[in-house]
Amino acid sequence: MELSVIVPTFNEGPNIAELLERIGAQLAGTAFEVIFVDDSTDDTPGIIAREAAATGFPVRLIHRDEPVAGLGGAVVEGFRAARARWCLVMDGDLQHPPEDIPRLRERAAAGDVDVVVASRYVSGGTANGLADVTRTTVSRLSTMLTKAMFPRKLAACTDPMTGFFLLDTDAVDIESLRPRGFKILLEILARRQLRVAEVPFDFAARHAGLSKASLTQGVRFLTQLTMLRFGRMSAFALVGGAGAIANLVIMWGLIRLGFDYIPAALIASEITIVGNFLLLEYLVFADMRDDSGRMRDRFVKSFAFNNIEAIVRIPVLWVLVEGAHFPSVFAAALTLLVAFIARFLFHALVVYGPRKRRAATTAAPEPVRAAGRSLDT
Ligand code: GDD
Ligand code: MN
């Protein structure tokens, strides 16, 4: 097997037949396979199965009932299942033209790089297929931000956000990747220094269907960037900081409404605790949720910890205000800061700590999903 083509799909039924036909045309004479890693909620798996039967090359379908880590998680699942060492990752909507595959392979054949990136932003490439001005601007700005944060690792890459690339999987420690959302190439390039080459390509318009890009993906991307660069604790701090500000604003508002500062602090804390938990679930610890039991149990632990923390914090707040004559909002800020460290440790080790380690199955062909999580990013 010379090449595994990995295609993540989410409701891409109308694109499958044309995609397979065009990939097949480009790779005639090559020993290759196509692996669809599918999280669809519609009839896409059925369409893939039907179309696969009509091709002259191996097409495999991994349908995930639990779409862990979205698009990025699907690509990693594809790497694990791939039979070839070199994997080509491309979208299933034909925005990544299969006609560019030979140029990617030619560049890789020179033998001096670990990954060949199909770039929209290197000279000769275009991003015309991006839906509108907003998408174009967001793409440009986030690319700049990302490159600024990883000046060395991304020095040779003009388009770390592309989803179209050819990778030597021997150069990557697949199990150390922590995919979340869309930006799987960034995850790969930021982990360790790879030798990167680029090939320009025209990012085409979607063949059919709708884009799954969204504001949520944007927020996921910013979290991923923070965690890749500064570690999980900094993302936790960012969420905590936002929570602390919300907490103080709510408290201030309640005081303005005539509440005494103690009940105001209590109400503000309860609201913040629930909001914080949701942000931790979906952003900071999204990749550890899987191994840490049920969401309800996590909420109970998190809620209990934060309330005990608040119960301890309020008397301290009282002492600071009545005894040391600190302004109440400033004193509240101080206690929130001290509570932060304890909260991070508790959440990382207890709330999101691995509960049931799934047995390492040596016999099963599909590697265990999400095994070996650790606390570092
Ligand atoms: N398995 C799986 N699970 N596939 C998904 C998921 C998911 O949760 N979400 C999206 N996909 C698939 C889509 O079906 C498509 O094949 C591919 O991933 C890209 O998704 P689109 O919805 O078409 O995203 P896009 O065109 O807005 O984004 C593309 O371009 C960006 C650059 O602007 C992607 O290639 C991004 O990775 C890329 O950063
Ligand atoms: Mn697309």
Provide an overview of this structure.
The protein is α/β, with parallel strands linked by helices and 377 residues long. It folds into two domains: 210 residues, Spore Coat Polysaccharide Biosynthesis Protein SpsA, Chain A; 121 residues, no CATH class. The protein has eleven helices and seven strands. It has a seven-stranded mixed sheet with strand order 3-2-1-4-6-5-7. Helix 1 links the parallel strand 1 and strand 2. Helix 7 packs across helix 8, helix 9 packs antiparallel against helix 10 and helix 10 runs antiparallel to helix 11. The longest helix is centred in the C-terminal third of the chain and has 29 residues. The site of manganese (II) ion has 5 residues, from loops. Manganese (II) ion binds next to loops.
**Shape type:** elongated
Q: Percent of residues in helical segments?
A: 40-55%
Strand content: 5-15%
> Largest sheet, if any?
7 strands, mixed
Identify low-pLDDT runs.
358-377
Structural class comes to alpha/beta
Roughly how many Å is the radius of gyration?
24 Å
Label the CATH architecture of the largest domain: Alpha-Beta Complex
Q: DSSP helix count?
A: 11
Q: How far from one another are the termini? A: 33 Å
Number of domains: 2
Overall pLDDT score: 89
The small-molecule ligands in this entry are:
guanosine-5'-diphosphate-alpha-D-mannose, manganese (II) ion
- At the fold tier of CATH, the topology name of the largest domain is Spore Coat Polysaccharide Biosynthesis Protein SpsA, Chain A
Order of neighbouring strands in the sheet with most strands = 3-2-1-4-6-5-7
Please provide the ordered H/E string of secondary-structure elements.
Answer: EHEHEHEHEHEHEHHHHH
User: What's the CATH first level of the largest domain?
Assistant: Alpha Beta
